Amino acid sequence: MAKTSLIERDVLVDMPRSQGGRARLRRGRSDEPDVRALRLPSGFPWILPSLVLCVGLIYYCVGYTGYISTLSWDGLSPNPPSVGYHNYTTGILHDPVFWGALKHTAIFFVATFVAQTFLGLLFAVLLHAKVKLGVVYKVIIFVPVMLAPAIMAPVFREMFSPPGQFNEVLHHLGLGFLTQPWIGQSSTALAVVAAITIWEWTGVNFVLYYAAIGQIDRSMIDAARIDGAGNIRVIVSIVWPSVRGTTFALATLSVIGALKTFDVPYLVTNTGPNDATQFLGTYIYQMVVTLDHVGYAAALSIVLLVLSLILAIALQLRSRRGKLT
Amino acid sequence: MFETRNRGQRIALQILLTILVLPFLFPLIVMVQGSLQGQGWGNYRVVLDVPGLWRFFLNTVIITVGVVLLVYVVAMLAAYGFAKLRIRGKELFFWLLLGCLTLPEVVLLAPLFVTDLKLGLYNTYWAVVVPLAALQVPFAVLLVRNFLEGVPDELFEAIRVDGANAFGVFRFLIVPLTRPIASAVAIFTLVGAWNDYLMPLVFLQKQSMQTVTLVPQFFQGEFNDDQTKILASAVLTALPEIVAYLFLQRHFERGLTAGAIK
Known about the structure:
By secondary structure, chain A is mainly alpha-helical. Chain A has helices at residues 2-14, 21-27, 35-39, 44-68, 86-91, 96-128, 134-146, 149-159, 165-172, 186-214, 218-226, 231-242, 244-260, 263-269, 280-290, 294-324. Chain B has twelve helices and no strands.
């Protein structure tokens, strides 16, 4: 075993040499006397396929995008001129559509996260009570998660159109004065996109909260009940703090999801009217595919990537810090 | 969690739940109802008679199976390596993988487009399967690694003392042991691949290669915005997912919770 392990170690040091920086970092620790290390076979060949597939492909793409972002390129011409930081400084910084998309993303994130958290937790709490046909409710809440937004898009376009079923229901409820062209006007289009997303994703929050609530120590709740706590008090003082980890996980998912938003605004509202439902994903897509501003799209992509990384890391750090105190 | 003290409260709770759940049911009702307007079931016959409809399903199935297999194999191997084997700079590699978790797929568009054209992969399954798998692998590795780290090392030492090499350990210990978490991985990979829209939209321009998520657009052209037919096609494409979910309900939910509660 020791012999093969030595051979593999040579391979190991050799392999990353072509990848520059990483090799140095790994060689630095290579002389530690570790009994386990000698006995265990090296795991590097095992993780290699994943590194080639993910790190290889994705980091290659990110690097390539970074390079393209310094060009003024339509995606076709063989020798695009380099423009340095031009795409970022004079481009993105002064692009009202970009800032608009960012604002929509922020509003969209807050709206969807608050609504999904509230509804998800509410359903989870209510379905933990003794209700009849609990499974039916669970299925109804979760089915939207399964359905592709692209497939549901025509349904929502019809539903929110002026003669659509949503306005019809408002009429029947005696709220006829509220009827309006929901998709066709800037003031409500973003709300429609958010509502569709809430419809689609509440099931995820629900299932996760449902599982998290199942793990809460029952005796804690029983004790609170004996002390006279009512339903609301139990939810606020015991359930909500207990599912904190899940809330942070869901917040992270929502932030990344909001930054990735593409299908719904692209298919339901067509990013309009007047860019009212423009998001970073749809904007980048338009820049690449319909307008051929590939260099500018690459710069936008890099900004998007940095934003998602920073926000995801910030949320993770916050969630950890909370655990310690 | 939520206490109902008497019959009245129990009924009130049931009514409240039913009202709350209605908005979730509503779009599905709109979809089915809309698909039956005009010619009624005839809409479905017209949609099913469109030549090449099955091709969309076939393409989606091929792509989904490809992604799930690729993610399964790659993630299993990697999770075993990360959890139980000796790797120098292990955590560095792990963080490199996790960095891919936040990546929005739209970032990949331009570079993949150029590369696919160069390699002749444009309009092939590979153009969609490989990037989709690459985007799913990090999360799968994270899940399976967490799972395997909960398995005591003694088990691995025992089987190695019995003479199994690393491959034997993988084949006879890892594969059977990880079955529950593997089904979770398979399911969320499946849903992700099946529902993906952007990748096929950009990389599969040839109609015979397109997937079910592109069906609504296809029918918009085909039926000149005849909503009833478009909705009928939406029902037909949504149906397999709903049926699959109803049969595998428990697995789906476990797959989700395995991801976030750990």
